[in-house]
From TrEMBL:
Cofactor: pyridoxal 5'-phosphate
Presence of keyword Thylakoid: no
Protein name, entry field: Pyridoxal-dependent decarboxylase, exosortase A system-associated
Domain of life of the source: Bacteria
Pfam families (alphabetical): Orn_Arg_deC_N (PF02784)
Limits of the Orn/DAP/Arg decarboxylase 2 N-terminal domain: 45-287
PROSITE patterns in the record: ODR_DC_2_2
Keyword NADP among record annotations: no
Organism: Sphingomicrobium clamense
Keywords noted in UniProt: Pyridoxal phosphate
Length: 406
């Protein structure tokens, strides 16, 4: 037997013992046929946003990183609750069409067409290099507009203990800190509407201390660069990195500790920064725990004493649960039998998808209630980096459905 990940504490059972999502039994969200689906529970997102607002300094703005989950009904809901969206591509810009919020766009390899679309839409471009700065200014000149530009700083430190470190190393993300003052001076000289700085040191950290340290280092670096340029930034985006518990033993991030430390840091900033907009950009922490991937058991196959529950889903929808989305070591996501959510776990089984690869393993040797063909399996923590972070085209299986639930 292997350990199951911790089921997020937001979900209950229906009266007949099924997993309840948005007032309905999980299986009732699935239509006819063999297409799995993602249910995103809006009240969970609401709770996370309320926690952020309660624990973080009042001054701190909250941006949503669209790439975590770009499902349009979810974006429309987020738009009513957050202070801005961070985009990672021109495709994401088209997904947010008609939404009236401050937008920024980060990410390496922005093409001239990307820059053109962003400038026309009034998006703040987080410049990843000097070359991108030159091209953004050239594109802006062609269309006769003043571009809103910020500089992504490749910080000389990384977020410790993060699932994915970005910073402290050579990287394709951002401009090395020592070259930033010269770039900022030149952007202003060349007539850009320079906005400020963007720092992003890593993702999926559950350590408040590590996040506090990286935020402190980030602010210190911004002050140093500001001293070097003599130019006050209108905006400083401190990144994010807030993680959620996925695996056995993971504990939730203590956002109170982060908020108190950040408030102290803000209080040490000089009055010159009084008008600077300070923000975090979060994806996973806001929406990850709200999502449940639901897939039906099509077959049971017993081989050499091990039971395989073969479902109509797989890693083509939920790559991360298979352990193939950046994890060093495969561990089980939180998984349950949604049809028998309240039942005791009595059998050991592995949950697999229907791709022709042993990598398509959604849960490895976990304890579940005795599971029958037709039961629905729930994979939790599927609200971020789920469907759009998976190789949907592989084997041409049916696409998963999606719903934002009450
Ligand atoms: C992916 C990304 C985010 C969001 O990260 P989460 O771990 O989902 O919070 C924020 N900012 C940048 C620059 C990113 O690339």
């Amino acid at each position: 037997m292997k350990a199951n990940g911790p089921i997020p504490p937001f979900f209950e059972s229906t009266r007949d013992g099924q997993l309840c999502i948005g007032g309905k039994a999980a299986g009732d969200w699935m239509g006819e046929g063999d297409a799995p689906m993602f249910a995103y529970a809006r009240p969970v997102i609401e709770e996370k946003i309320a926690q952020f607002r309660a624990d973080m300094p009042e001054r701190l703005r909250l941006h949503y990183a669209v790439k975590a989950n770009p499902y349009r009904p979810l974006l429309d809901f987020m738009a009513s609750r957050v202070d801005g969206f961070d985009l990672a591509s021109r495709g994401e810009l088209s997904r947010v069409e008609g939404i009236d919020l401050p937008l920024s766009m980060a990410g390496p390899g922005k093409s001239d067409a990307d820059l053109h679309a962003a400038i026309l839409a009034g998006v703040t471009i987080h410049l990843e290099s000097e070359g991108e700065a030159d091209r953004a200014l050239a594109v802006a000149e062609q269309v006769g507009m003043t571009p809103k530009l910020a500089v992504r700083v490749n910080p000389p430190f990384a977020l410790k203990g993060a699932g994915m470190k970005m910073g402290g190393l050579s990287s394709q993300f951002g401009v090395d800190a020592e070259r930033v003052p010269a770039l900022v001076t030149s952007l202003i000289e060349r007539g850009a509407d320079w906005q400020g700085y963007h720092l992003y040191a890593g993702s999926q950290s559950l350590s408040a201390d590590a996040i506090v340290e990286s935020q402190r280092e980030s602010l210190k670096l911004v002050v140093e660069i500001t001293n070097a340029t003599g130019e006050m930034p209108s905006e400083v985006n401190l990144g994010g990195g807030f993680g959620i518990p996925y695996f056995p033993g993971d504990e939730p991030l203590d956002t109170k500790v982060v908020g108190e430390a950040l408030e102290n840091e803000f209080n040490t900033l000089s009055d010159d920064f009084a008008k600077t907009r300070l923000m975090l950009e979060l994806g996973r922490w806001l929406v990850g725990e709200a999502g449940v991937y639901l897939t039906r058991v099509i077959d049971r196959n017993v081989s050499h004493g091990r039971t395989y529950l073969v479902t109509d889903g797989g890693l083509q929808h939920m790559l991360a649960a298979s352990g193939n989305f950046g994890q060093l070591l495969r561990r089980n996501y939180p998984v349950a039998n949604a049809t028998r959510f309240a039942a005791e776990a009595t059998e050991e089984a592995s949950v697999v998808g229907r791709l022709c690869t042993p990598l398509d393993l959604l849960a490895d040797e976990i304890m579940l209630p005795k599971t029958e063909v037709g039961d629905v399996i729930a994979i939790f923590c599927a609200g971020a980096y789920g469907l759009t972070a998976s190789p949907n085209g592989f084997l041409s299986q049916p696409m998963a459905g999606e719903a934002l639930t009450d």
